[in-house]
Amino acid sequence: MKPIAACNDFVVKFANVNGSGSASANELFAKAILRMGVPVSPRNIFPSNIQGLPTWYEVRVSGNGWLGRRGGVDLMVAMNPQTWDADVKEIEPGGYLVHDSTRALPKSKFRDDIHVIGVPLTEICNRAWTDPRQRQLFKNIMYVGALSVLLDIDVAIIERLLGEQYKGKEKLLDANKHALHLGRDYIGNPSADDRPCASFDTAQFGLRVKHADGVGERIFVDGNSAAALGCVYGGATVCAWYPITPSSSLAEAFQKYCMKYRVDAETGANRFAIVQAEDEIASIGMVVGAGWNGARAFTATSGPGVSLMTEFIGLAYFAEIPVTIVDVQRGGPSTGMPTRTQQADLLACAYASHGDTKHVLLFPCDPNECFAFSADALDLADRLQTPVFVMTDLDIGMNQRLCAPFDWDDARAYDRGKVMSAAELEAGKDFGRYKDVDGDGIPYRTYPGTHPDKGAYFTRGTSRDPYARYSERGPDYVYNMERLLKKFETAKALVPQPLLRKATQPTTLGAIHFGSTAPAMDEAIVALERNGVHLDTLRVRAFPFADAVAEFVAAHERVFVVEQNRDAQLRSMLVNEFGIDPARLVPVLHYDGTPITARFITRTIEQQVGAQQPREADKVA
């Protein structure tokens, strides 16, 4: 089989054991290519235990700038005997397998249509080090060194990255450099002590990295860190949370940024409060209390946490208290797959709590929007006096991604919404806590203690009249429930609007997608057009849906709805909110816990429209 040949356009996957110290080496590999000016999109696929189970790290190298998963693997670095067979199966025909050849494997463990490069990593490490932990750790750096020769990665860049990582720790730096060059020497300048690299001539290795200028001014950051910084810039001063994968690093990042930006320079006092509560119920209760008292407050959680929070979410909705919830979605139901990604919390969040409730949801697609939407959510929560969800997921939250630099206007003022002042109360201005005075459904509020005997000091989750007096009268209840719907309608113009992309020629087909499907969808649209399938696309960025979403559906005979869950939750919401004929909305569903790929979208839509079969290079492995 002819070796795959590609420059700045391939997929490398590392198969390791969790707890082996491979993560930093794999990240070093990805960042080295990025420093060469070539866009990369790494994804860490890890188990939910601490140590011992399989873990994978996939790096998409794309000179064209595609950041979604492509599908298929061109180069597999197989370091885990437990997953060997499945890992080898993933390799594209003509692709490459790099493995530890210290122990010989039977021919049946390989494929005739791939090219094998054996590096005796364990043997070389055992000669160089006596400490068992060092042998394990430096084996990872050694394979990075071997790959740097095979792929022609600039070794000076790798050494600079190691220097940054181990600054001030010269002993560790020297040992890592030594391991790096042991791997390089085995491929590029093997000593007489080393066995031959393999039957495959490495001179025929066809994958290359070449210096480019494809990164530009973009930054490389994970979505959780971006959302945390957005909360800082958005004015959050209170965070109450309970640890849950994959959201924990968001609260931890918020604390790190607060320690840098929210400590009084003169007194050293913290101008923020971060509480790790005993559970999710307590954390949302604290956030609701802080919001009622006028603080900008948020919590970070995932699906199981939202399940526990629903009663307090309902209280915040009906008592009309600003609350921001960042939901970093993972696989469910129940414990599900804690370290896998999904977009399966839409229905749970949009209609959270019993009775008739509707909540504002924001759908960021990358770390840049995680930053912007988290700050916006705090404004929206105050403006609308209601819970607002930022619906990110593990793929965005825990993986580093190239994105546009964050943008912030220092002149931007926080939108605190309708807050009545002490002077206005003292002047006798009519204050009805739940009274709609201007037709947008949003009442005025006061911060507790604004005035000694006027304004609001208490709230409740029961029915009341417009002046917050307890009432079980039907007309009072209906007034409030219809006013809440009017408020939700007002939100349509305030939330991020959908983004339309027109096909290169007129078409009756459309596609709707949201969130982390965007990078793969962008690439799939180009592949589909190349194969004769033309789609107008609309990326939905918020709920409530803008009227433009219904207009988009009405303008097309069929609309594919691309999402990462089993039950087509976005599609269900579109039908529920607009009364659309379900037959016009064709689900494209991916829910195995891995991020959706461009190849999956392309193949699924082509099968639906009956178009020509994809070219061989576009097929799913």
Automatic annotation (TrEMBL):
InterPro entries: 2-oxoacid/accept_OxRdtase_asu (IPR022367), Pyruvate:ferred/Flavod_OxRd (IPR050722), Pyrv/ketoisovalerate_OxRed_cat (IPR019752), Pyrv_Fd/Flavodoxin_OxRdtase_N (IPR002880), Pyrv_flavodox_OxRed_cen (IPR002869), THDP-binding (IPR029061), Transketo_C/PFOR_II (IPR009014). Residues 19-184 form the Pyruvate/ketoisovalerate oxidoreductase catalytic domain. Keywords: Oxidoreductase. It is an enzyme of class 1 (oxidoreductase). Residues 231-396 form the Pyruvate flavodoxin/ferredoxin oxidoreductase pyrimidine binding domain. It comes from the Bacteria. NCBIfam families: OAFO_sf. GO terms for molecular function: 2-oxoglutarate synthase activity. Its EC number is 1.2.7.11, 1.2.7.3. PANTHER family: BLR6743 PROTEIN, PYRUVATE-FLAVODOXIN OXIDOREDUCTASE-RELATED. This is 2-oxoglutarate ferredoxin oxidoreductase subunit alpha. One of its GO terms (biological process) is response to oxidative stress. Signal peptide: none annotated.
